[in-house]
Amino acid sequence: MQEFPEEHELLVLFECEPTFLDTPSDTMVFFYNEATYEFSNGFEDFILTLQPACGDVKIQVTNHDTKNLITYLELKNIARFEIINDKKDVSSIMLTIEDDERLQTFEIDFKPKFKLITKIV
Description:
The protein has one helix spanning 7-14, and strands at residues 19-20, 35-40, 44-51, 56-63, 69-75, 80-86, 91-98, 103-111, 115-120. By secondary structure, the chain is mainly beta.
C-alpha cells in the first residue's frame, strides 16, 4: 500500500489549493482523486499532479522567467511520498519506488531552488 501525506500536509507544503480532477465530496475522498498543485519558488514554476490511490506522481518544472522546461518527471507505483523539509525557506520531499530487484529514491527540493537527486540501488 502506498504511503502519501494527508491533504492538509500537502496544502502547507505547496502553499496552494489543488485543482481536482473530480469534484471533492463526502464520498470522493482525496486519496482516490487526482490533485494538481501549481506553485513557484520565484526561480522555478512547478506543476505537480498526484494520484495517491495509484501511486502516480508527475512533476513539471519550468524556469520562472523564460518558461523553458527544466525537468519533467513521471513516476508510477510510488511506495512512499515523504515530506523531508517543510519550512518557510526550505521544502523538500522524497519519493520511493520499491520492487523485487531495486530501490529507487528521488529527493526533490522545491525551495530555496529546485534540485533533484536520484538514487537507484
